[in-house]
Design brief:
single chain; 6 helices; elongated
Amino acid sequence: MCTLNVRIDDKVMARVKPHFTGDHAMQLWIEEVLKRAMEDYAEERESQLADVYERLSHLSSLKKGWDGRGALPVSQSVIGNVRKVMSISDKEDWEGWMISPDVNATLCLFAPNTKASISLGSREFSYFARKDGERLGESHVVFTPEVFLSVMRKLWLGE
């Protein structure tokens, strides 16, 4: 949960307050203003990440056997995990990452600049990279959007 501090100009307050009969009505008005602001923010974020949303839409429409050999469709919980990460990330976090389905209902994210990859499942993920010839990675990392995003950023930078 995030905290949003809002300052309403005194002139605006002076004009608006007489229209409300009590603090509860004012609270409802403020909640409505904040709700609209959050909806606008969500629309802005979605337009910034339109390419990723479009890719997810395509991946979520894949049917069993999409590879011609019986591959499973991408799990909706995996798609949901990506959406959770998108909700806390910026457009720049996704630029350059290649997102592809894997045969076991998971997704693979590949960073061509560092040759790093992440395999995302419904409850956990694994990642792999090479740095200075050394193999780095971890398997069965419990998924949280924050941890996943942190790993994405580090792998993109080659850290």
